[in-house]
Specification:
The protein has 240 residues and is an alpha/beta fold. The chain has one domain: Vaccinia Virus protein VP39 (Rossmann fold). It is 42% helix and 21% strand. The protein contains nine helices and seven strands, in the order αβαβαββαβααβαααβ. A seven-stranded mixed β-sheet has the order 3-2-1-4-5-7-6, sandwiched between helices. Helix 2 links the parallel strand 1 and strand 2. Helix 5 packs antiparallel against helix 9. It starts with a helix and ends with a strand.
């Protein structure tokens, strides 16, 4: 795949983000991207339902103009037209109702404000990227068994279709793939194996335990055979 990363980063470098809301912000990974690459910004609010990851984000970003708030992406607790920039990075597949979440992004964005959607997709994956998808889908299966909404990876067309429903203007679309090193690197494989520690314990006693345990071994086998690398991502920028 031809990387669109440089184009995306160059666009950010020319933008004053103003007041920013990053929804489903997690530990603030995309907030760091915005801080490092935007020309300027006034204030950033990070929103997520997970109090634990927000506590970690608050420790990472100690600044008077960056705050983290607990809240639902399905009913964002801000008035209409509150933000100059609203972003959602790698969180679309975590939304209980992605269409509702995107609609809420539009609602709280100012007229003319910037919408940024960044999401991995499942098309035309290499064997090592398939390992990543299998890892992700297994985590989704476990989360859903535990009552935590987690969708499988969307296709590129599915993401575009959802974004097209927003009726944005001045849209730009970029494909890129993060490079993290050789897929068979023991360091990278061990990083993902570490993430899986405790997964078996989370499903202990559930009716699906045997199936999940078999899937865990299958994912580990995929790491051994094919390594693991990040899937392609789609970045969509447009104005309300």
């Amino acid at each position: 795949m031809i990387s669109g990363r440089n184009n995306f980063w160059n666009i950010l470098a020319g933008i004053d983000g103003g007041r920013i809301l990053d929804i489903a912000c997690g530990k603030g990974q995309f907030i760091k991207v915005l801080i490092d690459n935007l020309a300027a910004f006034d204030h950033i609010s990070g929103l997520d339902v997970n109090r634990e990851v927000l506590a970690e984000a608050s420790e990472t970003f100690r600044s008077d103009n960056i705050i983290f708030l607990t809240g639902s992406t399905q009913n964002i607790h801000f008035p209409d037209e509150s933000f100059d920039t609203v972003s959602l990075s790698k969180g679309l597949h975590h939304l209980e109702d992605p269409h509702r979440g995107l609609s809420e992004m539009m609602r709280v964005a100012k007229t003319g404000g910037l919408i940024i959607i960044n999401e991995m997709y499942s098309d035309n994956l290499t064997p090592s990227q398939l390992s990543h998808m299998q890892h992700h889908h297994l985590r989704a299966d476990i989360d859903n068994l535990l009552g935590i909404n987690h969708n499988y990876t969307f296709t590129r067309d599915q993401i575009l279709e959802m974004a097209n429903e927003l009726d944005l203007y001045d849209i730009s679309v970029h494909d890129y793939t993060e490079k993290t090193g050789p897929p068979d690197s023991p360091e990278i494989i061990n990083e993902y194996l570490d993430k899986m520690k405790g997964w078996a314990g989370e499903v202990k006693g559930l009716p699906e335990e045997t199936k999940i345990l078999a899937a865990i071994e299958q994912v580990k086998s995929g790491f051994s055979n094919n390594g693991i690398s990040r899937p392609p991502q789609l970045v969509i920028l447009g104005h309300k």
